[in-house]
Amino acid sequence: MSVFDTHCHLDIVASQGIPVEQSLSNAMEAGLAGLVQISTDIKSATFNSRLEAKYSNLLQTAPDFSFRWTAGLHPEAANELDTLDDIFAIVRENRDSPSFLGIGETGLDYFHTTEFVDEQKESLKRHLELAKELDLPVVIHTRDTRQYEPGKTQSVQDTLEAVRKIGGVKGVLHCFTYSYEEAMPFVDLGWKVSFSGILTFKNSHTLHEAAATLPLECLMVETDAPFLAPVPNRGKTNQPAYVVHTLEFLKKLRAERLGEDPQKIQEQIEINTQEFLDFKAS
Ligand SMILES: [Zn+2]
């Protein structure tokens, strides 16, 4: 395996001018091992469930390229809680499809939408219950309003509480932007931590520290495309092919700070990603 984009939104990338075919073929040409197409609402869950069939000709040209997808309701869309049954029906219907990976993205966002906190908590709880019932991993989004203080991020604390209450669910903290203190309770539960292009930004000091102190065995990379394109493409519409820049940054950072061998880092991230893909019990 080589680098895998563990989190992207090809439908939103397409709405910003790069068609799905183009994103996929660019990813294949960049040598990616695969990507995970993430759902945010009922529309994208439906889109995701049809994507593989729709682009089967293109996907068949690269048999080693792995396409995986999720279904879930983003916390910013928690006001659409009434669509959750339909989204979960898509999950149940596709549970055993080889390309279906798991549930998400769900989580808690106290930055964009504070008026739907109760709905967000209810939505997260229901996603976690379904993940436990069907033995599927969850993709978690967290974001806070308040000034950052290590270890005191409310959205992460509340998510951890919900995860502990359910018990036995594994997943990933996607687009991680906090510190060692926030990540470790999840890492201790066997979770992965995924870094986006934000890692490559010059001023992401807290994040650089986290990426250099967390155990290598929990780390993964993603684009969250079309958002947050990594340097040197910062400001452009992001796409899965750009994930290589985040991986290279992470390798350089840990090689410089910890003296780790870049090749070993790459291999371990490949192992971590495979473990994440295998969280879905067969
Ligand atoms: Zn996302």
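^ zinc ion complex. The longest strand covers residues 100-109. Residues 7, 9, 38, 105, 224 surround zinc ion (CB under 6 Å).
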